[in-house]
Structure formats: C-alpha cells, structure tokens
Amino acid sequence: MRRPRSHQVTMLSAIGYGLGDFYAGGQGALVSTYLSLYWNKFCGLNISFSQTVLGLSAIVSAFVALGFGVLDDNFYRFAIGRRFGRRRLFLFVTVPGIFIGTLLWIPGLSAWAYACAYVLWIALVQIFATAYGALPGEMTADFNERTQLSTARLFTATAASTGIPLLGGVVLSYAGEEKPDGYMWFAMGMTLAFAVAVFLCWKATWEMTPSQAGFSAFEHPDYVPIRVGFSGWARRCRKMLREYASTVKIAEFRKHLVTYVLCMVSQDTFSQLFMFFVIYNWNKTAAFGSLLLSCTIISLPLMPVFARIMVKQGPRKLYALNYSASVIGLIWFALLWATAQYSHTVIWVIFTVAGSLWMLSCKALTNYIPWAVFPYMADIDQIVTMRYRSATFLGAQTFIRQSAGGLCSLLIGGVLSFSGFDATHRVQTQSAHIALGALFLGIYALCVLVGWLASRTLVINRNTDNLVLQEIKRRQEGGVATDIDPQVRHTIEKMTGVAYEQCWQQ
User: How far is CA 242 from CA 66, 236, 237, 245, in A?
Assistant: First the structure.
C-alpha cells in the first residue's frame, strides 16, 4: 500500500496531497462560519454554551494531538502499521468517520448530543491533521518539492475557505436564513465532499518505509513483540512526555511555535466572530457575510507568489510583509465599523468588498507561512537527535495551538455573554456591539504585533535548511564532528540552540 519514498513529487501528486486540506481547512471554514450561529438560532444553545463547547473541544483535541503524535511516529512498531502505513492508514480510517459531522446539523437534538458529536468530530480532525501534516517530510526531502506540497495544500484550503462561504451564501439566499433547512442540507453535502477529498488524498500520497523511518529492526523475521503491563505503559507515557518536552529545546522551533500559535489564534478569532460582526456590527445579512468570505478567492492566484517569496527570501521577510498588510486591514475594518450607519450605500459596500479582498488575502498568507515553515523543524531536530520526528513536533505544536485556541474561544464566549450578547435578537445592546468589535479586532491586532516581533528572529530559509540536510547526510555517511565547516557549525548552533558537540546523539 505504501509507495517507495523515491517516488517523485509531481503536480498531480501535489494536488492529491492538497485535497486533504479541503477537509482539514474546509471543515474549519464550515464550522467557524456557520455552526455557532446555527446552534444559537435554531438549536436553542446560547452563545456562552456554544463557545464553551468549541473551546473545551479544542482543549480535548490538544490532548488527542499530544497522545497521537508520538503514537503516529512509532506506529511502525506494530504489525498493523508495518502492513498499512503509519500515516496513510489514519487518512483511510478518517473517511467513514467524517460522517459523524452530520449530527452537528440536525435540529432538535439535546445540547449534550451536539457537544458529544462535536468532541468526536474535532478529535477525528486532529487525528487526521497529525498524520496528514507529517506527510510532506515523508514524501520528499527537497525544499522546492516541500514548498510545492505546502503551496498545493494551502491553495486547496484557500479554495475551500472561498468556495464554502460562497456556495453557502447562495444556498441561504435561496432557502432563507430564518429556517434551518438550508444550513442543514448544505452542511451535509459538504460533509460528503470532505469524505471524497480525504479518500483521494489517501490514494495520491506515500510515506517512508519502516527501514527509511528507522524501524528496520521491527521488520526482521525474528522480531518478537514485547508485552508490557501497567508499569510498562506508565514508562511509555513518561517517555512520551519527555519526547514532547524535548521539542522545545530546539531554538528555531520555539520561535516558530510562537508565530504559529499567534497566527492560528488570530485565524480562529476571525473565523468565529466575522459572521457575527457582519450581522450585528455592520447590520448586514449572513448571506452578505458569506459572499464577503468568498473574497478569499483573490488569494488563489497569489499562492505562487507567496511560494516564490518563500523560496527566494525566506519566511522572515514574508512574515514582515504579511503583518504590515494585516495592520492596514484591521484599520480598514475598524473604519467600516465606525461608518456602519452608511451600510446601505453603494460606496460603503464597495469599500467593504475592497477591504475584505485585502484582509482575506492577508488571512490566507497568515495561514500559509507557518505551514510552509513547519516541515523544516524536523530537519533541524534530526541533526540533534538523529531521528526524524515530524509527528512528534506536530503533536507538540498542535497541543499548544489547540489549547490556546480553546482558551480564546472560552474568553470570547464569556465576554460576549457578560456583555449581554444574544444571537436570537436582531438588535444588540451597545455593550454587546463594543465587546464584539473589541474581541474581533483587538485579539487579531495583538496576535499580529507579538507575532511580528517573534518572526524577526527566524533563521530558517532554503539555504540554511540545505546546510542542515547536507550535514545530516555527511554524518550519516560516517563524517566526524571535528570536520565540520565553522560557518555551518555556527548556523546549526543558532538554529538548534545547542552546542554542536551535543548534536548527532541518540
């Protein structure tokens, strides 16, 4: 079932890989745009409860990531992993599991039924994302090919983020916003599309063989599995926690982690609050908000430009470009809020569409950069530990990201509830308007400013990653530590944060 790692990344295989983010990114667009609004209007859930479910589910997802990351990296220890793969097996299992999501959109269920269904849904998304996110490093070690995979992935995610609100807006305009049928059938149709996309992703991708991943001993015919009791599992849990803790010893990963988490929290805030902001602070409809979100399409032709800047200039300059543009976008949205009394005029609508085109391009780039950077973290770690631990890094990264996102959702729900916000009322109190605007614009602005500072210290780029890969190859071929070039030594020490003498050790 696994293809050899020497298989070349082509445009077709990159597109096939990218289809996975039609589910991973598309489900986020569907849920964040419509689910909380749907629950509040048609399922009898208030904003505090719905945001609590979203927040606590994100924290549950964080712990799923923590446990699953190490399991995924070590799945070749088990016969089922050696037979079906340590990454792609979980992609295949995700396909039928996706249909759990239909329960989220059936009106009339109990609050706890929605909560349990969402916990299962978000846990499944996390299991998929952990296995899926590790694939670029398995499919190729080439910087340009990895960038091609990341670009295809983000292109697909952006297309989903564009197409889902656009199609949703059309459906709601036709079916009506004041009854649940349009939301329900649209969401169920998208759930089916997610399952098809993941299946095609599974068919198009490949991964390292056990021997390539460092598990050749487990393929030996004389290998006998060792049974462990409770104490053995306890030792493994402690070892797992040490594995995760060891990731933050890598200096470049710590800097990447700060920028990644802030980027994702800003995305979460935007996605969760944009529709509410449009309806209650701009006095427009959900269909209008959906059509504005479709302005993300402007970023599709920009993806090759993003990739070119990433390859030529590195992530640090791309972050600087994105953050400065995001500040302009936030000011633009604030001005639209201040002039919302003119929202019925053609000029205001034109200004709003232009601002949405600008801001959603920034949002797409905010999502692109950290995922384009992530595959190189495991390279930097490998020169230290001699192991390729991409899923472990992904698990650690996702645990912190989901925990931060969950806490942010709880904060949003608490503040909106305290301010008197009620989605069933067309007109909100002044305090609710202020709270909604402050959360929507303020959290995003804070993430941008802090992330900008953190990104200025990044070292990773195409040249520095090539230095790391060349040094890994030299050491694998028997090269000794004392023969290292001084400039390469300095670069590696700067990215790893440890003395070179401590590198290349189990």
Answer: 11, 10, 9, 5
Phi, psi of 56 (to 5 degrees): -70, -35
CA distance 61 to 67: 10
**Contact by Cβ (8 Å): 404, 388:** no
Q: Do residues 448 and 365 lie in contact, with contact meaning Cβ atoms separated by under 8 Å?
A: no
Question: Where do the H-state alpha helices sit in 374-429?
Answer: 377-385, 390-419
**419: nearest Cα among 273, 302, 263:** 273
Percent of the chain surpassing pLDDT 90: 35
CB 384 within 8 A of CB 505: yes
Tell whether the model's pLDDT for residue 450 goes beyond 90.
yes
* Listed residue (296, 293, 260) closest to 377, CA to CA: 260
- Name residues whose C-beta falls within 8 Å of residue 393's C-beta, 6 or more positions apart in sequence: 69, 247, 253, 374, 377, 378, 381
d(CA 321, CA 333): 19
Count how many residues are written for the chain: 506
Segment 297-320 mean pLDDT: 86
Is residue 195 pLDDT above 60, yes or no? yes
- Report pLDDT digits (tens) over 405-435: 889 988 998 998 889 887 777 778 889 999 9
In one-letter notation, the amino acid at residue 71 is L
Instruction: Write the DSSP string, 162-194.
Output: HHHHHHHHHHHHHH-SSSSHHHHHHHHHHHHHH
Q: Where in the chain is the domain with CATH 1.20.1250.20?
A: 14-206+238-460
CATH superfamily for domain 14-206+238-460: MFS general substrate transporter like domains (1.20.1250.20)
| pLDDT > 50? residue 378 | yes
Residue 214 region, left (φ>0) first, then alpha (ψ -120 to 50), else beta?
left
